[in-house]
Design goal:
The complex is a heterotetramer. Chain A is an all-alpha fold. Chain A is built from 10 helices and no strands. By secondary structure, chain B is α/β, with parallel strands linked by helices. Chain B folds into 2 domains: about 80 residues, no CATH class; about 170 residues, 3-Layer(aba) Sandwich (Rossmann fold). In chain B, α8 links the parallel β5 and β6. Chain B starts with a helix and ends with a helix. Chain D has a 6-stranded parallel beta sheet, with helices on both faces. Chain D folds into 2 domains: about 60 residues; about 200 residues, Rossmann fold (3-Layer(aba) Sandwich). In chain D, β4, α7 and β5 form a beta-alpha-beta unit. The mean pLDDT of chain D is about 90. The chains are: A mainly alpha, B alpha/beta, C mainly alpha, D alpha/beta. Chains A and C meet through α1, α2, α3, α4 and α5 of A and α1, α2, α4, α5 and α6 of C.
């Protein structure tokens, strides 16, 4: 129990307080240890963690093959892929020492490792992500509903950002947006008054007001600014959005601060599986 | 004690101390003290009020509706392992949901993507059914492992949704891109959907596609609230107090800034807030 | 065109289209590509972590070339290791510009303990290494987040909001109105996450305003998320268009035809089978 | 009226594979047949440009590459434009990577810009220090002593043998930091452990998804401007007056966004019709 439980908790407390209070200590030896060696150890252990993760994954795949679990044929492919990557990483360089020595081979052009990166790893990881573009499209069609005021606010600000930020947003005239707003308000008026006449009068007055305004000012694309998509977009992005994002950021910051302190004090021990 | 010791050290000429960061040291010490104080208070048995969270009420409604319709409930605890706080919170909420399904005799379906999560989720369901006096209704297969891979898992859950047509779908945990795929399918089968996550990039998708969403900290507070563990409730309370302090500092510094820049009265607080 | 690049283009277009075929439905092409991805990325990360950190910065400090002396114990061990793998441990020590620091045996031991945890009965051994990483991350984060995400943000919000040298209202440049938006929005947003009091009265109103700001922010995130996904798709298609050129023997087209053909044929076969519904297919989809 | 409503309902329930095909088309067609919409720079992109422009010639700039091939279409054009801008103004460029794949991306961009376009000299005008695992600890290491962390560069040359590294011992020796980032570790870690504690100005180019996480830093001045996603990269390309892959993607981006907005609107119309009907019964 002592080795499995107390020691890790002690390590967290010790290393945690050294790094935390190290921020305030201005003594060359301490500073050097915290700034350089302790971080180096961290980096070394982070690499071991990466290796551990990779081996764990492959262990699971091999188990799948050995016990012939459903879909094990595909796991064979995963294992083969792993072996290929290891061969490229440790055994076959593909170029002479004069071009790239061991160690530099993972970045140099012409090596087997680089080939694997360019034509196997890279296209697949990029494609996996780009699949999402399609799902976004179908979800925006079938799931993004104006259920309540909050969702409306979300979708409207999302749409303004989406259109206002790309070049096409700059081509859309602010007068067009004004017409859209008049029509939108018309639908709203109709849904409360339930009277076609009122709606008609409202829309007619609105449309003519906008038209008169347009004729007088000569239809400038980006005037008045509060109806020009790139300007509205910029405003939302830089002010209300930042206010919301900042509230979340402070919340997250406090949450992480609290969790870190709890780790250091040994109150929170989930990392050892408790 | 700490302050006293520090005062002596300070008077001795504070060797080896980064004086520029003194504001930071005091914030760290005082905030930690607040956290510890409320955690201790909760452990001593002091009760703290936590406001009701609408999405949790909706869970009960959803379970009721599933019972009426005779359809199961689908619960997705995210795609990450137990080392993520959100997954832990998800499993805590699962225990709560399992109690309700035991009470209403509705069937529960929990597909998971990590083997450790499977173990934890099974335990928490078993406990819930035992507490409600219905251990007979619990079977291990209600929590089952699909696959580790993100999209394959999403596809598997989609398959379950389309075939079993659950009346309610709940997504509580750490989500990445699959949030969208799940919420969309759930929407297309007309299920009541309730989500909870702290992944900032995924919240918008849940908000638009689900009926209720627990946003970020709300989700953690909900799990503290449901688990009734004193250290978690104390933590929520402590963080609340810190939040109040942050707001207070914000208001006071703003007033000071307005005074300083408009009338030259007072001092420039922003210098104290800049810590190099 | 070199053979390796040509082969690469074919492999890349096969994998890309194989993954895209998932949009039609889950199928063997997708699964092959996906599992290959899992295996290759595991091996890839392992190799990179080893060659960029462990070999130069750990072994490079334990066995630096600077102090090479075959008579000492360390270098005797080194020569044995070198016998097994001269690529990792080249003759004469590792020359990465380090001095010898035997204190780096500590992270080495912790690291080896981490790897030992692959054996189930030693799984606890990983905890030491993890504890180090967790502890250090906690110490760094507690300071970093408090400074940048809390105090820095207080400073960003606490400005002279009634600075009347600024215009009262202006959309996209600093103005009193915009300062107020940030101030009110941030505080109300924080109040929404205040749990230990019921949201009624003034607090209720403030938290309502707060949630509106949060929603606008989520809306912006949503817009940006869509933007990002589309950009990535554009990048993929640009590559596929490149690979469909004559330089690459029209790789994209041929692979596309192959995969569409096979999937189409399978769909056709499925349709004929549909008259006899079988339980088999159900079981299969569940595993997926 | 009911006929129109029925059509909308029918559209509302089409198979999603049709939507997939539409999206594929609206992305591919503008790529093959460009429209050439004008690009106007947003304020946050302009501040990045102005900050770089204001650096005195020969400044030492740290360029950190933190993305992988999966977000290459967004980040790579930013990195390339930034390098062009830096090399054109004769700054010294130091490249580090917090992501493993970052060094391939960096190598790619350097080959294209430093070697291909500007014929700069390795070790004197630019250096690729490479990748180190460890996230925030690497940033902390760079702030404390970069020579200890990067004892060798990506080509395994010792830093003591690299002339331009002579005047560099830690992060404070740099005049500016630009991070091209796609997540953790990335911009946020640079702000927290490097820029905020030292006061060295920094700026960043991030993926669209990440924008909202860093915006508060930009607004409060902890960061100087930000390039947001592929449109941000396109804006930077137009600011430095050299078009690249981001600009050519903008037409497809514009059209795809419009189509998605159209989807949202259509979807909601059929939703309302549906709701109206179910209320009646």
């Amino acid at each position: 129990m002592f080795w499995k439980r107390q020691v890790p908790i002690f390590i967290v407390a010790l290393i945690g307080s050294i790094t935390l209070f190290g921020w305030f200590i201005d003594q060359p030896d301490v500073k050097e240890f915290i700034g350089d060696d302790a971080t180096q150890w961290f980096d070394v252990l982070a690499s071991f963690a990466i290796i551990l993760g990779a081996l764990n994954l492959i262990k699971l795949q091999i188990q799948k093959v050995l016990y012939q679990k459903p879909g094990w044929q595909y796991s064979v492919i995963a294992v083969l892929g792993f072996i290929f990557a290891i061969v490229a990483g440790f055994f076959v360089k593909g170029v002479d020492d004069s071009v790239a020595q061991w160690g530099a081979h993972v970045t140099s052009d012409g090596t087997l490792f680089k080939w694997m990166f360019d034509y196997v790893f890279s296209p697949m990881s990029a494609t996996m992500f780009s699949l999402l573009a399609f799902f976004v499209a179908s979800a925006s069609y079938r799931a993004f509903r104006i259920r309540n005021f909050e969702a409306t606010l979300l979708l409207v600000s999302g749409i303004i950002i989406m259109v206002g930020r790309v070049p096409i947003g700059g081509v859309i005239s602010s007068w067009f947006i004004m017409y859209l707003i008049v029509l939108g308000l018309g639908i709203y008026v109709n849904s409360i008054k339930k009277d076609t006449k009122v709606t008609f009068v409202f829309v007619a007055v609105g449309v003519s007001l906008v038209t008169i305004g347009g004729i007088i000012s000569g239809w400038p694309v980006d005037q008045p600014g509060i109806f020009y998509l790139p300007s509205i977009q910029e405003w939302i992005y830089y002010y209300p959005n930042v206010a919301g994002a900042r509230a979340i950021m402070i919340g997250i910051g406090l949450g992480i601060f609290a969790t870190s302190i709890r780790y250091i004090l040994g109150i929170e021990r989930s990392y050892i599986g408790e | 004690m700490v302050i006293f010791a520090f005062a002596i050290y300070w008077l001795l000429g504070h060797p080896y101390f980064v004086t520029d960061r003194i504001v930071m040291l005091f914030s760290i010490l005082s905030l930690s003290a607040t956290l510890i104080y409320y955690t201790r208070a909760a452990e001593r048995g002091e009760e703290f009020y936590l406001r009701p969270i609408p999405a949790l009420k909706a869970v009960e409604e959803a379970v009721g509706r599933s019972t009426e319709m005779g359809r199961p409930i689908l619960y997705v605890p995210g795609i990450q392992d137990m080392d993520q706080v959100e997954t832990v919170a998800g499993v805590v909420v699962l225990g709560h949901v399992a109690k309700m399904t035991a009470r209403y005799e509705t069937s529960l379906n929990v597909p998971v993507s990590r083997s450790i999560v499977m173990k934890a989720a099974r335990e928490s369901c078993r406990d819930a059914y035992t507490v409600e006096g219905r251990p007979d209704m619990f079977n291990e297969d209600m929590v089952h492992y699909l696959t580790d891979d993100q999209f394959a898992y999403a596809a598997g859950v989609n398959g379950i949704m389309v075939r079993e047509k659950p009346a309610a779908c709940m997504y509580m945990g750490k989500f990445y891109a699959e949030s969208l795929i799940l919420a969309e399918t759930g929407n297309s089968i007309g299920a009541i959907q309730i989500a909870g996550t702290a992944s900032q990039a995924q919240i918008p998708f849940f908000v638009t596609a689900c009926d209720y969403t627990l946003i970020g900290e709300e989700f953690f507070a909900a799990s503290a609230y449901l688990s009734q563990k004193p250290e978690l409730i104390g933590g929520v309370k402590g963080q609340d107090m810190i939040k109040l302090a942050v707001i207070a500092v914000m208001v006071i510094s703003t007033i000071l800034m307005v005074l300083y820049e408009s009338t030259g009265f007072g001092f420039n607080i922003s210098e104290y807030l800049t810590i190099r | 065109m070199e053979f390796s690049a040509l082969l690469g283009a074919w492999v890349a277009s096969f994998l890309t289209i194989g993954i895209f075929s998932y949009l039609y439905k889950d199928n063997p092409f997708y699964k092959i590509a996906e599992h290959l991805f899992v295996g290759v990325s595991a091996g890839y990360l392992l190799s990179l972590g080893f060659w960029t950190q462990l070999q130069p910065n750990l072994f490079g400090r334990l066995f630096p070339a600077k102090h090479y002396d075959p008579d000492t114990i360390t270098y005797t061990i080194y020569n044995v290791l070198s016998f097994f793998s001269s690529s990792i441990f080249p003759e004469g020590g590792i020359d990465k510009g380090h001095d010898q620091h035997l204190i780096y045996l500590i992270p080495l031991i912790l690291g080896i303990m981490m790897l030992m945890s692959l054996i189930p009965s030693f799984s606890w051994m990983a905890r030491w290494g993890i504890a180090y990483v967790v502890g250090m991350a906690a110490g760094l984060k507690a300071y970093g987040y408090l400074n940048s995400n809390v105090i820095g943000q207080i400073k960003g919000t606490a400005v002279n909001i009634f600075d009347f040298s600024l215009p009262i209202f202006s959309l996209s440049s600093p103005s009193v109105f915009n300062n107020l938006i940030i101030f009110v929005g941030t505080i109300c947003g924080l109040l929404y996450f205040y749990f230990s009091k019921e949201h009624k009265g003034l607090l209720g109103k403030a938290s309502k305003i707060g949630i509106y700001f949060l929603m606008i922010s989520f809306g912006a995130s949503f817009g940006f998320a869509v933007m990002g996904r589309i950009s990535l798709l554009i990048g993929r298609f640009t590559d596929l268009i490149t690979f469909s050129g004559s330089d690459y023997n029209y790789a994209t087209f041929w692979v596309l035809i192959l995969i569409v053909g096979v999937l189409g044929y399978a769909a056709f076969q499925d349709k004929e089978k549909e008259t006899v519904p079988s339980d088999d297919s159900d079981v299969l989809t569940e595993e997926e | 009226m009911t006929n129109i409503e029925n059509i909308f309902l029918k559209i509302g329930s089409i198979d999603r594979r049709w939507i997939f095909i539409i999206i594929a088309l609206v992305v591919v067609v503008p790529l093959l047949v460009p429209i050439g919409l004008p690009i106007r720079a947003t304020d946050t992109s302009k501040s990045v440009y102005d900050a770089v422009e204001a650096l005195p010639r020969g400044s030492k700039v740290l360029l950190s590459i933190e993305y992988s091939p999966s977000t290459k279409p967004e980040n790579h054009p930013m990195a390339i434009s930034m390098m062009r801008h830096l090399f054109r103004n004769n700054h010294k460029v130091y490249v580090t990577c917090l992501w493993p794949d970052g060094q391939f991306m960096a190598q790619d961009a350097l080959n294209q810009v430093a070697v291909g376009e500007f014929d700069k000299k390795y070790g004197e005008d630019y250096v690729l220090l490479g990748y180190r695992p460890g996230g925030e600890a690497v940033v902390k290491g760079i702030v404390s002593n970069i020579r200890k962390l990067f004892s060798v560069d990506a080509r395994q040359t010792k830093v003591d043998d690299i002339p331009m590294m002579d005047e560099i011992t830690n992060f404070k020796d740099f005049d500016f930091l630009f991070s091209a980032s796609a997540g953790y570790p990335g911009t946020i870690e640079w702000v927290q452990y490097a820029a905020d504690p030292t006061g060295v100005p920094m700026s960043s180019g991030v993926t669209s998804i990440q924008v909202n996480e860093v915006m508060p830093y930009v607004q409060s001045g902890q960061m100087v401007g930000v390039l947001a996603g592929m449109p941000g990269a396109a804006e930077y390309e137009s600011l430095i007056g050299q078009k690249g892959s981001a600009t050519s993607g903008m037409d497809a981006q514009s059209v795809a966004h419009l189509v998605i907005v159209l989807f949202i609107v259509l979807g909601n119309i059929s939703y309302f019709i549906d709701r109206k009907r179910s209320r009646k019964y």
